[in-house]
């Protein structure tokens, strides 16, 4: 039996370890056990192109046409993206776009609705 902690968001006991992260399968919350990384996650603020703070579950709109890498498709300006998830990295928004599927976007190319 594992001694992993319960999820800090939804208190689920069904957490599992993936590399250096602990993941909750019920609410998809990911965190690290080291206090330093937890403090970094809490202080990380992601803003849209207008300077509005973005949160998980927000709805955003694309502010310019974006080419889809590896495809001839383009995500048009004004496309609504619902229920975003904030992640670490260069592309800091994880989402699903109707007609395109799952992808990652940069916060500088979206605005909060």
Automatic annotation (TrEMBL):
<dbReference type="Pfam" id="PF03831">
    <property type="entry name" value="YjdM"/>
</dbReference>
<dbReference type="InterPro" id="IPR013987">
    <property type="entry name" value="YjdM_N"/>
</dbReference>
<dbReference type="Pfam" id="PF08274">
    <property type="entry name" value="Zn_Ribbon_YjdM"/>
</dbReference>
<comment type="similarity">
    <text>Belongs to the YjdM family.</text>
</comment>
<dbReference type="InterPro" id="IPR013988">
    <property type="entry name" value="YjdM_C"/>
</dbReference>
<feature type="domain" description="Protein YjdM N-terminal">
    <location>
        <begin position="4"/>
        <end position="32"/>
    </location>
</feature>
<feature type="domain" description="Protein YjdM C-terminal">
    <location>
        <begin position="46"/>
        <end position="112"/>
    </location>
</feature>
<protein>
    <submittedName>
        <fullName>Alkylphosphonate utilization protein</fullName>
    </submittedName>
</protein>
<dbReference type="InterPro" id="IPR004624">
    <property type="entry name" value="YjdM"/>
</dbReference>
């Amino acid at each position: 039996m594992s001694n992993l902690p319960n999820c800090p968001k939804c208190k689920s006991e069904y957490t599992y370890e993936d590399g250096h992260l602990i993941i909750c399968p019920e609410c998809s919350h990911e965190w690290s056990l080291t206090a330093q990384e937890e403090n970094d996650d809490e202080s990380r603020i992601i803003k849209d192109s207008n300077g509005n703070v973005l949160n998980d579950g927000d709805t955003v709109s694309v502010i310019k046409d974006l080419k889809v890498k590896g495809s001839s498709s383009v995500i048009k300006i004004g496309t609504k993206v619902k229920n975003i998830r904030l992640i670490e990295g260069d592309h800091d928004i994880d989402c699903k776009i109707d007609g395109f599927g799952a992808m990652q976007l940069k916060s500088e190319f979206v605005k909060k609705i």
